[in-house]
Design a protein that fits this description.
Layout lengths: L2 H11 L14 E2 L6 E10 L2 E10 L2 E8 L2 E8 L4 E6 L4 E6 L11 E9 L2 E8 L5 E5 L5 E6 L2 E12 L14 E2 L3
Parallel strand pairs: 7-13
Antiparallel strand pairs: 1-8, 2-3, 2-12, 3-4, 4-5, 5-6, 6-7, 8-9, 9-10, 10-11, 11-12
Length: 181
């Protein structure tokens, strides 16, 4: 249930290591996020809107999106400590090393507050290491809002389907050329 959090930390911090805490802080909050699913997510930051297809299964995630008019697939392989950006129109990809967050090194959170809106319960939590704040819908475990450095990103989840995914979708397609950074 920890993959979505790990992926969010990776994407938010763009691969920078997060200072870890030892735990035991007052109001420390355990978060339980979905581990395996496929969904369409719409992320809104200010006037920008991004629509992505997301597939997750344990320590792997695939995000299909459009960047500068080009279809891009991002593979996040926590199991390998790597992230791949794949340019589908050009049969090319780049590889980046990402931090591997082990279970005993997981980021700690504190609960800020709970709320109810339109019969749904939410909890707001803050990372003790990075200071990133998340608003989580309690029933689904999905983040619906992320705040970092004064920037708010709203996430709408549509076509959400929990369950294991085909492992083949988390691989680089055969015949694609690796580009050097």
């Amino acid at each position: 249930m920890k993959l979505l959090y790990k992926i969010l930390v990776t994407l938010i911090l763009l691969g920078n290591l997060v200072p870890k805490t030892k735990g035991g802080e007052e109001n420390e909050e355990k978060i339980k996020l979905p581990e395996a699913y496929k969904a369409i997510q719409i992320i809104e930051t200010g006037s920008l809107k991004l629509k992505e297809a997301v597939y997750a299964d344990k320590d792997v995630m695939r995000i299909d999106s459009i960047e500068d008019g080009e279809p891009i697939t991002t593979l996040i392989r926590r199991d390998l400590g790597k992230m791949y950006k794949i340019a589908l129109n050009r049969n090319e990809y780049i590889e980046k090393v990402i931090p591997i967050i082990k279970d005993d090194e997981e980021e700690k959170f504190i609960k800020i507050k709970s709320s109810t809106k339109e019969n749904k319960k939410y909890k707001e939590i803050r990372s003790l290491g990075s200071g990133t704040e998340f608003v989580i819908e309690e029933d689904s475990g999905l983040p619906v809002l992320i705040r970092k450095n004064g920037v708010e990103s709203k996430i709408n989840w549509i076509e959400y389907n929990p369950g294991p995914q085909d492992k083949k979708i988390f691989e680089i397609p055969e015949g694609y050329k690796k580009l050097e950074n």
